[in-house]
Each structure stands twice: as C-alpha cells, then as structure tokens.
Amino acid sequence: MASRQVRRRSRPRGCCSLAALLALAALASSPGRLGAAGAGEGGSGVKWHVVSVSSLLPSEVCTATEAAAPINPSALSVVHRHGPCSPRRSRGDPPPSYAEILGRDRERVASIHRKAGRAAASKGSNATLRARWGKPLGTSNYFISVGLGTPARDLRVEFDTGSDQSWVQCKPCGDCYEQHDPLFDPEGSSTYAVVSCGARECREFGSRNCSSSSDGQCRYEVSYGDQSRTVGDLARDTLALTPTAAVPGFMFGCGHRDAGVFGEVDGLVGLGRGKASLASQAAARYGAGFSYCLPSSPSTVGYLTFGGAAASASANAQFTALVAGQHDDASFYYLNLTGVKVAGRAVRVPPAAFATAAGMIIDSGTAFSRLPPRAYAALRSSFRRAMGRRYRRAPAPAPFDTCYDLAGHEAVRVPSVALLFGDGATVDLDPSGVLYAWDSVSQACLAFAPNPDAASLGVLGNVQQRTLAVVYDVGNQKIGFGAKGCA
Ligand SMILES: *[C@@H]1O[C@H](CO)[C@@H](O)[C@H](O)[C@H]1NC(C)=O
Ligand SMILES: *[C@@H]1O[C@H](CO)[C@@H](O)[C@H](O)[C@H]1NC(C)=O
Ligand SMILES: *[C@@H]1O[C@H](CO)[C@@H](O)[C@H](O)[C@H]1NC(C)=O
Questions:
Q1: Homologous superfamily of 78-119+130-306 in CATH?
Q2: Which of 72, 121, 213, 240 is the most buried (most CB within 10 A)?
Q3: Rounded to the nearest 5 degrees, what angle is found at the Cα of 367, between the Cα atoms of 364 and 368?
Q4: pTM given for the model
Q5: Mutation test of ligand 2: which of 132, 207, 233 has the most ligand atoms closer than 8 Å to its C-beta?
Q6: May I ask the CATH architecture of the domain 35-62+316-482?
C-alpha cells in the first residue's frame, strides 16, 4: 500500500472550508459569551457568568483554525470525536445520540472503578508489578493526528491520560473494527522493528505467554473491562508528533486482532503516569511534562503539547501537587480536591467529604466529573440555591439530577464554580464546564454526577477541563490549570 503524504499538525480533513471560515468570522462579530459579573471573595474569579443560551449548543460547522493552537512547533490540534471537526462528521455521519455518549461515559467510569478495585485487591502482593500492556480503560473522547513510521503515515488516535499503553491497528488485521484511515502497514515502514521475547521491555510490558510464541516476537494484549481488546506485536517505530518533533523508537502495540467501542480512531496513545506511556517516552527528548487544552465545544479544536516548554507557556496557571493514590495505580494522576466554591462561596461540607480515602484522579477520557456522594450533594444544593427561581427546572436524564429549561431566555446567569485543592490552588471552571446543554436548551444540566458510594474513586472529567490550559508538570509532580487556554 502506497503511503500517503504526511500531514502532521494538520487539521482534520475537510475541517476548514471557506464556509467554516466565514462562519468563524460571523461568530467573531457576535461572541457567544456575553461576559462575567461580580468579583468573587478573596480575589479569585467571578460569581456569575452571563452566557448566551445559544452558545450552550455546539455549532454545526467546524470553526477550527490553526490559530486555535498556541504558536508552538510541538503543538498538536485536539479535536472532539463527536463534533463537526471530526473526520467522521465531515463525511456526513450523524453525531452519536446523547444516550450513547452517556452510556459510554458510564462504562468508562465503571472500568476506572474496576481497575482501581483490582489494584486495591492486589495491593501488598507483587502481582501488579508486572504492569502488562493491559488493564486499560475505555476510550476517551478526544483525538490527535500523529505520523507513524518512515515515511510517516498520518493516523488519528485518541489520547488518554488514564492509561499508559499506546496501540494502533496494523496490517494484516484478521479481526479489526472499522477505522477511518487505511491500516498501518509495518512492511511499509523502514524504521519499524518488533520487540523480541528476550528484550527487557517485553518482560516489563509484553503479554505473559510471550515465551511460548513460536517466532520469538513479543506480543502484547490489552483487555478492556467491557470486552473490548487489542492483541498484537509489541513494536517500535518513529512517532512524528509535529513536523519538528518526533519520538524515534516509540514503543507501541501493533494490533492484529482488535474489537470494541473505539469509534473509528486508528488507535490510542496513553498519556498516563507509567513508564510505557507516550508522556514518559517523550520525556527524554522534550522534558518531563505535557499540556493540553480541550475546547469548549465540539465545533472547535484544542491542543496537546509535549515538553518543559509546555509548563512555562501558562504563567497564569494555578498549580496543585500530584498526590499518592490509595490504589498505587501507576497510570493515574491523583489530585487532592478538598472543596468547591459556587458563586464565590465555598460549599458547606468538610474537606473529608471531598478528599475521601479513595482519592480523585484527573482523566481526559471521562466526560462528567464524579464526586463522592456527600460532596456532590453539597455542590448541588449550593448550585440550585444560586440558580434560584429564575429558571424553570426540567426533567433530568441520569446521572444528572439538576437540569433547567432555558427555552425563551436569550442569556443565562450561570453561577461560577471553582475547584479548591488542599494546597490552596483555586481553579475557576469555564461556564461550558458547569452547565451542559442536553440535546436542546430546554434541558441544560449541572454537569457533575455523584459516585455510587464514598469508597469509589473520584474523577475530574473532561467537561470540567474545557478551555483550561492543563499543564502536567510531571518533573515537579504538579498539575496546573490556566484560564483561557483555548476557545
Ligand atoms: C512475587 O513474590 C513471590 C513471593 O514473595 C516471589 O517468589 C516471586 O518471585 C515474586 N515475583 C516477582 C515477579 O517478583
Ligand atoms: C496467549 O496464549 C493463549 C493460549 O495459548 C492464547 O489464546 C492467547 O491469544 C495468547 N496471547 C497472546 C497475546 O498471544
Ligand atoms: C490534602 O490537603 C489537605 C489540606 O491541606 C491535607 O490535610 C491532606 O493531607 C492532603 N492530602 C493528601 C493526600 O495530600
């Protein structure tokens, strides 16, 4: 198969037509966000955001431009897989239903809880030390375009801060799901190399029964909680992130048998804390750390950028320390969330209701943040009080329970929500991370959900991370959140 010309750092195909650019110009002259009002106590943030109701719904046109990414040669564009900027949508496929999105999100959180449970169950034994290419989570909602091999093949892969293992579907594929691009062909790459059974990384990351494979090639196997899985060769090849940034000898899984709900992405890159992740593999070249910005709406793009420069790009960021997780899971990034402010006032609940023993992770693949039940209940009552009687309540699809009917309103006053961390960092959320419009403005919901019990791991999801520059300063063991990282 002839390899196509590389289009690294490219927008998704069909993304920026003239029509889309004209639409962008139109948007620029009528900004969706009307402004913010009322200074918060203690100087941090505002009490209210006044948001135009129509801006709560994603646009049907892709308004992405290169300008959405910072002027940084190692930045990649981040695209929401359900939005009009995604290749799937530009081909005319309908967006998934909201029930489907919620179902996937539930499955993702359930698999995080299962994974944390397994790690807890084996704590004290050395069973988890093998750190196989396995036990990852479901898929995430954002993807990037990267180039793999020499000459580089352009591939669209999800990125996932909740797992370490990266893989793509490879030729020959006996049993693969349908993907957007032609399969990656190892024979078409002059720099492709399999990992042998005897190699150290095979013992560390390969599948258990490697030694029994006849050809001496290291296999990997990633099993998902929901029966999804990928099986193939553990391999190395050059991974081109941008035209000027590449990771030679990048270790990944070349999948020959893959099944599951991955959408149509060509694979997945793990950005977890563990040694196998792209974040760790890129650290030697670009410095430990990466940062990203997830756009406020599926119709725009954000970025993902690697290296130490990523950290300095966000001088206004509020930094909070990474903490040790109860479950010792090497791939998760744990944070110490101790409170929430609504409309400038801390909700009345002891920090222990937030910082439960189970802890909280930040995850790019979960959509709606999950809080311990007591913490969620406190947030919900403060939010309902702040919304007052100005807006009609609307039926709430589970897991939500606080929705409003905004039909007939031109603008909505959204109470500000800020996350408070144990070391004093205060992070104001974008209003797009507070109120989530269901399929119409007649059902706009508080975009958080409670965990089933206080013993379950909390998750800071991607909806709450929208528009923030999220800086993983892995070298200094801290994570920063900067306002207005992208649109
Ligand atoms: C796990 O622990 C057992 C007993 O302590 C030991 O015999 C075994 O070699 C250990 N396995 C690994 C992979 O370290
Ligand atoms: C490991 O061995 C079992 C049994 O022979 C086989 O079914 C499975 O596919 C193997 N796993 C890999 C990754 O080759
Ligand atoms: C979280 O922050 C609180 C308040 O500063 C502190 O008492 C607690 O020890 C911290 N927890 C962790 C796990 O660091």
A1: Acid Proteases (2.40.70.10)
A2: 240
A3: 125
A4: 0.80
A5: 207
A6: Beta Barrel (2.40)
